[in-house]
Amino acid sequence: MSLPALQNTGVFYRRIVSQFPQDISLAFAYGSGVFKQHGTSQGQMERNMLDFVFAVDDPVTWHTMNLLQNRKHYSILKLLGPNKISSIQNDYGASVYYNTLVPVDGRMIKYGVISIDSLIDDLMHWKTLYVAGRLHKPVRMLLQSENGKLRAALVSNLKSAVTASFLMLPESFSEEDLFLQIAGLSYAGDFRMVIGEDKSKVANIVRDNIQHFRILYSNILRDCPQVVYKPPQGKLEVDKSPEGQFIQLMALPRTLQQRITKLVDPPGKNRDVEEILLQVAQDPDCGAVVQQAISSIVKTSSITQSIKGIATAGLWKTVSYSSKKLMKMWKGWRRKPSVSQMS
Protein backbone atom coordinates (compact mmCIF):
# COMPACT_ATOMS: atom_id res chain seq x y z
CA MET A 1 0.00 0.00 0.00
CA SER A 2 1.38 3.44 -0.89
CA LEU A 3 2.13 5.98 1.84
CA PRO A 4 -0.56 8.55 0.84
CA ALA A 5 -3.28 6.01 1.67
CA LEU A 6 -1.87 5.82 5.20
CA GLN A 7 -1.45 9.53 5.74
CA ASN A 8 -4.41 10.10 8.03
CA THR A 9 -4.05 6.98 10.17
CA GLY A 10 -2.87 6.71 13.76
CA VAL A 11 0.12 4.65 12.60
CA PHE A 12 1.30 7.49 10.36
CA TYR A 13 1.21 10.03 13.22
CA ARG A 14 2.81 7.65 15.69
CA ARG A 15 5.63 6.97 13.22
CA ILE A 16 6.35 10.71 13.20
CA VAL A 17 6.24 10.98 17.02
CA SER A 18 8.57 7.95 17.32
CA GLN A 19 11.34 9.98 15.64
CA PHE A 20 11.55 12.28 18.69
CA PRO A 21 12.81 11.70 22.25
CA GLN A 22 10.17 9.64 24.03
CA ASP A 23 9.98 11.60 27.29
CA ILE A 24 6.63 13.11 26.19
CA SER A 25 3.64 13.37 28.56
CA LEU A 26 1.18 14.61 25.92
CA ALA A 27 1.40 14.72 22.14
CA PHE A 28 -1.28 15.89 19.75
CA ALA A 29 -1.62 16.89 16.11
CA TYR A 30 -3.90 19.73 15.02
CA GLY A 31 -4.78 22.09 12.20
CA SER A 32 -5.74 21.93 8.55
CA GLY A 33 -3.33 19.07 7.78
CA VAL A 34 -5.14 16.84 10.30
CA PHE A 35 -8.83 17.87 10.18
CA LYS A 36 -10.56 18.71 6.94
CA GLN A 37 -11.62 22.35 6.72
CA HIS A 38 -14.37 23.73 4.51
CA GLY A 39 -13.14 24.59 1.03
CA THR A 40 -10.09 22.30 1.27
CA SER A 41 -9.83 19.19 -0.92
CA GLN A 42 -8.28 15.93 0.33
CA GLY A 43 -5.30 16.60 -1.95
CA GLN A 44 -4.73 20.08 -0.49
CA MET A 45 -5.12 18.69 3.02
CA GLU A 46 -2.34 16.16 2.40
CA ARG A 47 -0.08 18.96 1.17
CA ASN A 48 -0.73 21.16 4.22
CA MET A 49 1.84 21.27 6.98
CA LEU A 50 1.15 19.01 9.96
CA ASP A 51 1.19 20.78 13.34
CA PHE A 52 2.18 19.00 16.55
CA VAL A 53 2.55 19.95 20.21
CA PHE A 54 4.69 17.90 22.61
CA ALA A 55 4.34 18.50 26.36
CA VAL A 56 7.43 17.28 28.22
CA ASP A 57 8.33 16.92 31.90
CA ASP A 58 11.89 18.24 31.59
CA PRO A 59 12.56 20.59 28.63
CA VAL A 60 16.35 20.69 29.19
CA THR A 61 16.67 16.89 28.99
CA TRP A 62 14.25 16.71 26.05
CA HIS A 63 16.07 19.36 24.00
CA THR A 64 19.43 17.74 24.87
CA MET A 65 18.19 14.45 23.38
CA ASN A 66 16.47 16.15 20.42
CA LEU A 67 19.60 18.13 19.54
CA LEU A 68 21.43 14.78 19.32
CA GLN A 69 18.66 13.11 17.28
CA ASN A 70 17.33 16.02 15.19
CA ARG A 71 19.89 18.82 15.25
CA LYS A 72 18.92 20.01 11.74
CA HIS A 73 15.41 20.89 12.96
CA TYR A 74 16.76 23.86 14.95
CA SER A 75 17.74 27.32 13.75
CA ILE A 76 21.07 28.92 14.63
CA LEU A 77 19.84 28.91 18.26
CA LYS A 78 21.07 25.30 18.46
CA LEU A 79 24.53 26.78 19.03
CA LEU A 80 23.32 28.13 22.39
CA GLY A 81 22.69 24.62 23.70
CA PRO A 82 19.74 22.96 25.49
CA ASN A 83 19.78 25.10 28.65
CA LYS A 84 19.43 28.37 26.73
CA ILE A 85 16.87 26.85 24.32
CA SER A 86 14.79 25.77 27.34
CA SER A 87 15.06 29.27 28.84
CA ILE A 88 13.85 30.79 25.55
CA GLN A 89 11.00 28.25 25.55
CA ASN A 90 9.87 28.92 29.13
CA ASP A 91 10.57 32.63 29.61
CA TYR A 92 9.30 34.26 26.41
CA GLY A 93 6.05 34.31 24.41
CA ALA A 94 3.60 31.54 25.28
CA SER A 95 6.20 29.16 26.79
CA VAL A 96 6.32 27.10 23.58
CA TYR A 97 9.40 26.45 21.43
CA TYR A 98 8.53 25.76 17.76
CA ASN A 99 10.65 24.14 15.08
CA THR A 100 8.95 24.68 11.73
CA LEU A 101 9.14 23.47 8.10
CA VAL A 102 10.72 20.18 9.16
CA PRO A 103 10.53 17.35 6.55
CA VAL A 104 9.47 14.02 8.15
CA ASP A 105 8.18 10.92 6.29
CA GLY A 106 7.29 12.84 3.15
CA ARG A 107 5.37 15.62 4.94
CA MET A 108 6.32 19.07 6.22
CA ILE A 109 5.72 19.40 9.95
CA LYS A 110 5.89 22.07 12.64
CA TYR A 111 6.21 21.04 16.28
CA GLY A 112 5.99 23.01 19.49
CA VAL A 113 7.54 21.92 22.77
CA ILE A 114 6.03 23.07 26.08
CA SER A 115 6.71 21.96 29.65
CA ILE A 116 3.90 20.00 31.29
CA ASP A 117 3.78 22.61 34.10
CA SER A 118 3.32 25.49 31.63
CA LEU A 119 0.65 23.52 29.76
CA ILE A 120 -1.35 22.77 32.93
CA ASP A 121 -1.04 26.43 33.97
CA ASP A 122 -2.42 27.58 30.61
CA LEU A 123 -5.24 25.01 30.64
CA MET A 124 -6.32 25.92 34.19
CA HIS A 125 -5.78 29.69 34.19
CA TRP A 126 -5.62 30.79 30.51
CA LYS A 127 -2.34 32.58 31.16
CA THR A 128 -1.66 32.86 27.41
CA LEU A 129 -4.56 30.90 25.82
CA TYR A 130 -2.01 29.71 23.26
CA VAL A 131 -1.97 25.92 23.64
CA ALA A 132 -5.17 25.97 25.73
CA GLY A 133 -6.90 27.67 22.77
CA ARG A 134 -5.74 24.98 20.36
CA LEU A 135 -7.22 22.40 22.72
CA HIS A 136 -10.65 24.10 22.59
CA LYS A 137 -10.91 22.67 19.09
CA PRO A 138 -10.75 19.02 17.96
CA VAL A 139 -7.19 17.67 17.98
CA ARG A 140 -5.75 14.24 17.30
CA MET A 141 -4.42 12.94 20.62
CA LEU A 142 -1.42 10.71 19.95
CA LEU A 143 -0.02 10.14 23.41
CA GLN A 144 -1.20 10.97 26.92
CA SER A 145 0.46 9.88 30.15
CA GLU A 146 -1.50 8.76 33.22
CA ASN A 147 -1.29 12.16 34.87
CA GLY A 148 -4.43 12.97 36.89
CA LYS A 149 -3.56 16.66 37.15
CA LEU A 150 -3.18 16.92 33.36
CA ARG A 151 -6.43 15.03 32.71
CA ALA A 152 -8.34 17.34 35.10
CA ALA A 153 -6.76 20.43 33.46
CA LEU A 154 -7.82 19.28 29.96
CA VAL A 155 -11.46 18.95 31.11
CA SER A 156 -11.30 22.26 33.03
CA ASN A 157 -10.11 24.02 29.84
CA LEU A 158 -13.13 22.74 27.86
CA LYS A 159 -15.55 23.76 30.65
CA SER A 160 -13.99 27.25 30.71
CA ALA A 161 -14.44 27.57 26.93
CA VAL A 162 -18.14 26.71 27.29
CA THR A 163 -18.64 29.14 30.21
CA ALA A 164 -16.88 32.05 28.45
CA SER A 165 -18.89 31.40 25.28
CA PHE A 166 -22.20 31.34 27.20
CA LEU A 167 -21.42 34.86 28.45
CA MET A 168 -20.95 36.11 24.89
CA LEU A 169 -24.00 34.42 23.33
CA PRO A 170 -27.71 35.36 23.54
CA GLU A 171 -30.21 33.42 25.65
CA SER A 172 -31.04 30.95 22.85
CA PHE A 173 -28.60 29.71 20.22
CA SER A 174 -27.66 26.70 18.12
CA GLU A 175 -24.88 24.16 18.62
CA GLU A 176 -23.16 25.65 15.60
CA ASP A 177 -23.30 29.15 17.16
CA LEU A 178 -21.69 27.76 20.31
CA PHE A 179 -18.96 25.91 18.45
CA LEU A 180 -18.19 28.99 16.32
CA GLN A 181 -17.89 31.04 19.51
CA ILE A 182 -15.62 28.43 21.16
CA ALA A 183 -13.43 28.02 18.05
CA GLY A 184 -13.06 31.81 17.83
CA LEU A 185 -11.90 32.35 21.43
CA SER A 186 -8.20 31.86 20.72
CA TYR A 187 -8.36 34.04 17.57
CA ALA A 188 -9.96 37.04 19.29
CA GLY A 189 -7.29 39.72 19.37
CA ASP A 190 -4.77 37.61 17.40
CA PHE A 191 -2.92 40.08 15.16
CA ARG A 192 -2.34 37.26 12.65
CA MET A 193 -6.07 37.34 11.85
CA VAL A 194 -5.49 40.84 10.46
CA ILE A 195 -2.56 39.74 8.29
CA GLY A 196 -1.49 36.18 7.64
CA GLU A 197 -4.63 34.11 8.28
CA ASP A 198 -7.67 33.28 6.17
CA LYS A 199 -10.49 35.49 7.55
CA SER A 200 -12.98 32.61 7.20
CA LYS A 201 -10.74 30.36 9.29
CA VAL A 202 -13.10 29.92 12.27
CA ALA A 203 -16.11 29.10 10.09
CA ASN A 204 -13.99 26.72 8.01
CA ILE A 205 -12.81 24.88 11.14
CA VAL A 206 -16.33 24.39 12.50
CA ARG A 207 -18.33 23.78 9.35
CA ASP A 208 -16.90 20.37 8.43
CA ASN A 209 -16.15 19.26 12.02
CA ILE A 210 -19.46 19.68 13.90
CA GLN A 211 -19.42 15.99 14.90
CA HIS A 212 -15.87 16.31 16.33
CA PHE A 213 -16.98 19.33 18.40
CA ARG A 214 -20.01 17.36 19.65
CA ILE A 215 -17.75 14.54 20.85
CA LEU A 216 -15.62 17.09 22.75
CA TYR A 217 -18.45 19.04 24.38
CA SER A 218 -21.66 16.99 24.58
CA ASN A 219 -21.02 15.52 28.06
CA ILE A 220 -20.05 18.94 29.48
CA LEU A 221 -23.22 20.50 28.03
CA ARG A 222 -25.44 17.69 29.36
CA ASP A 223 -23.96 18.01 32.87
CA CYS A 224 -24.04 21.84 33.02
CA PRO A 225 -26.87 23.06 35.32
CA GLN A 226 -27.00 26.48 33.64
CA VAL A 227 -28.04 25.37 30.19
CA VAL A 228 -30.95 23.52 28.62
CA TYR A 229 -29.35 21.35 25.94
CA LYS A 230 -31.55 19.76 23.26
CA PRO A 231 -29.23 17.55 21.16
CA PRO A 232 -31.88 16.31 18.68
CA GLN A 233 -32.70 19.91 17.66
CA GLY A 234 -29.13 21.15 18.18
CA LYS A 235 -30.52 24.01 20.32
CA LEU A 236 -29.43 25.47 23.66
CA GLU A 237 -30.87 27.95 26.17
CA VAL A 238 -28.64 29.53 28.81
CA ASP A 239 -29.36 31.44 32.02
CA LYS A 240 -28.78 35.13 31.22
CA SER A 241 -30.03 36.50 34.55
CA PRO A 242 -27.52 38.59 36.56
CA GLU A 243 -27.35 35.70 39.06
CA GLY A 244 -26.64 33.19 36.27
CA GLN A 245 -24.00 35.42 34.69
CA PHE A 246 -22.34 35.99 38.08
CA ILE A 247 -21.99 32.21 38.60
CA GLN A 248 -20.47 31.94 35.11
CA LEU A 249 -18.07 34.84 35.70
CA MET A 250 -16.93 33.31 39.00
CA ALA A 251 -16.17 30.04 37.18
CA LEU A 252 -13.89 31.68 34.58
CA PRO A 253 -10.12 31.03 34.60
CA ARG A 254 -8.09 33.26 36.93
CA THR A 255 -6.21 35.25 34.27
CA LEU A 256 -9.46 36.08 32.46
CA GLN A 257 -11.06 37.27 35.71
CA GLN A 258 -7.99 39.48 36.33
CA ARG A 259 -8.23 40.97 32.82
CA ILE A 260 -11.95 41.69 33.32
CA THR A 261 -11.30 43.45 36.64
CA LYS A 262 -8.52 45.49 35.02
CA LEU A 263 -10.93 46.66 32.29
CA VAL A 264 -13.75 47.55 34.68
CA ASP A 265 -12.09 48.75 37.90
CA PRO A 266 -10.67 52.28 37.74
CA PRO A 267 -7.01 52.57 38.85
CA GLY A 268 -6.60 53.07 42.59
CA LYS A 269 -9.99 51.64 43.58
CA ASN A 270 -8.72 48.13 44.33
CA ARG A 271 -12.08 46.47 44.89
CA ASP A 272 -12.09 42.70 45.31
CA VAL A 273 -12.68 40.45 42.30
CA GLU A 274 -16.06 39.16 43.50
CA GLU A 275 -17.46 42.71 43.85
CA ILE A 276 -16.29 43.67 40.36
CA LEU A 277 -17.66 40.49 38.74
CA LEU A 278 -21.03 41.10 40.45
CA GLN A 279 -21.08 44.53 38.78
CA VAL A 280 -20.15 43.03 35.37
CA ALA A 281 -22.90 40.36 35.72
CA GLN A 282 -25.52 43.12 35.86
CA ASP A 283 -24.06 45.05 32.91
CA PRO A 284 -25.95 44.69 29.57
CA ASP A 285 -22.48 44.73 27.93
CA CYS A 286 -21.23 41.81 30.04
CA GLY A 287 -20.47 39.69 26.94
CA ALA A 288 -18.51 42.50 25.28
CA VAL A 289 -16.39 42.94 28.44
CA VAL A 290 -15.56 39.21 28.48
CA GLN A 291 -14.72 39.34 24.75
CA GLN A 292 -12.41 42.32 25.25
CA ALA A 293 -10.65 40.62 28.18
CA ILE A 294 -10.06 37.44 26.13
CA SER A 295 -8.75 39.54 23.24
CA SER A 296 -6.22 41.21 25.54
CA ILE A 297 -4.81 37.80 26.59
CA VAL A 298 -4.62 36.50 23.01
CA LYS A 299 -3.16 39.70 21.59
CA THR A 300 -0.24 39.71 24.02
CA SER A 301 0.67 36.04 23.55
CA SER A 302 0.21 36.01 19.75
CA ILE A 303 2.57 38.98 19.30
CA THR A 304 5.27 37.81 21.72
CA GLN A 305 5.14 34.20 20.48
CA SER A 306 5.37 35.33 16.83
CA ILE A 307 8.42 37.52 17.58
CA LYS A 308 10.01 34.55 19.36
CA GLY A 309 9.11 32.38 16.34
CA ILE A 310 11.38 34.45 14.09
CA ALA A 311 14.36 33.46 16.25
CA THR A 312 13.36 29.81 16.74
CA ALA A 313 12.54 29.24 13.05
CA GLY A 314 15.31 31.35 11.54
CA LEU A 315 14.81 34.10 8.97
CA TRP A 316 14.53 31.95 5.82
CA LYS A 317 11.92 29.62 7.34
CA THR A 318 10.01 32.60 8.78
CA VAL A 319 9.76 34.22 5.33
CA SER A 320 8.78 30.90 3.71
CA TYR A 321 6.15 30.08 6.39
CA SER A 322 4.70 33.62 6.35
CA SER A 323 4.37 33.62 2.55
CA LYS A 324 2.39 30.34 2.73
CA LYS A 325 0.06 31.90 5.34
CA LEU A 326 -0.46 35.00 3.17
CA MET A 327 -1.25 32.78 0.17
CA LYS A 328 -3.91 30.94 2.25
CA MET A 329 -5.33 34.32 3.30
CA TRP A 330 -5.51 35.43 -0.35
CA LYS A 331 -7.27 32.19 -1.36
CA GLY A 332 -9.69 32.71 1.55
CA TRP A 333 -10.54 36.20 0.29
CA ARG A 334 -11.24 34.82 -3.20
CA ARG A 335 -13.50 32.09 -1.74
CA LYS A 336 -15.26 34.40 0.71
CA PRO A 337 -18.68 34.83 -0.99
CA SER A 338 -19.33 31.05 -0.96
CA VAL A 339 -17.80 30.39 2.46
CA SER A 340 -19.64 33.11 4.31
CA GLN A 341 -23.05 31.63 3.43
CA MET A 342 -23.17 29.35 6.46
CA SER A 343 -25.77 26.62 6.09
From TrEMBL:
<dbReference type="GO" id="GO:0016024">
    <property type="term" value="P:CDP-diacylglycerol biosynthetic process"/>
</dbReference>
<comment type="pathway">
    <text>Lipid metabolism.</text>
</comment>
<keyword id="KW-0496">Mitochondrion</keyword>
<keyword id="KW-0999">Mitochondrion inner membrane</keyword>
<keyword id="KW-0808">Transferase</keyword>
<keyword id="KW-1208">Phospholipid metabolism</keyword>
<dbReference type="GO" id="GO:0005743">
    <property type="term" value="C:mitochondrial inner membrane"/>
</dbReference>
<keyword id="KW-0472">Membrane</keyword>
<protein>
    <recommendedName>
        <fullName>Phosphatidate cytidylyltransferase, mitochondrial</fullName>
        <ecNumber>2.7.7.41</ecNumber>
    </recommendedName>
</protein>
<keyword id="KW-0444">Lipid biosynthesis</keyword>
<dbReference type="GO" id="GO:0032049">
    <property type="term" value="P:cardiolipin biosynthetic process"/>
</dbReference>
<keyword id="KW-0594">Phospholipid biosynthesis</keyword>
<keyword id="KW-0443">Lipid metabolism</keyword>
<comment type="function">
    <text>Catalyzes the conversion of phosphatidic acid (PA) to CDP-diacylglycerol (CDP-DAG), an essential intermediate in the synthesis of phosphatidylglycerol, cardiolipin and phosphatidylinositol.</text>
</comment>
<dbReference type="Pfam" id="PF09139">
    <property type="entry name" value="Tam41_Mmp37"/>
</dbReference>
<comment type="similarity">
    <text>Belongs to the TAM41 family.</text>
</comment>
<keyword id="KW-0460">Magnesium</keyword>
<dbReference type="GO" id="GO:0004605">
    <property type="term" value="F:phosphatidate cytidylyltransferase activity"/>
</dbReference>
<keyword id="KW-0548">Nucleotidyltransferase</keyword>
<comment type="pathway">
    <text>Phospholipid metabolism; CDP-diacylglycerol biosynthesis; CDP-diacylglycerol from sn-glycerol 3-phosphate: step 3/3.</text>
</comment>
<dbReference type="InterPro" id="IPR015222">
    <property type="entry name" value="Tam41"/>
</dbReference>
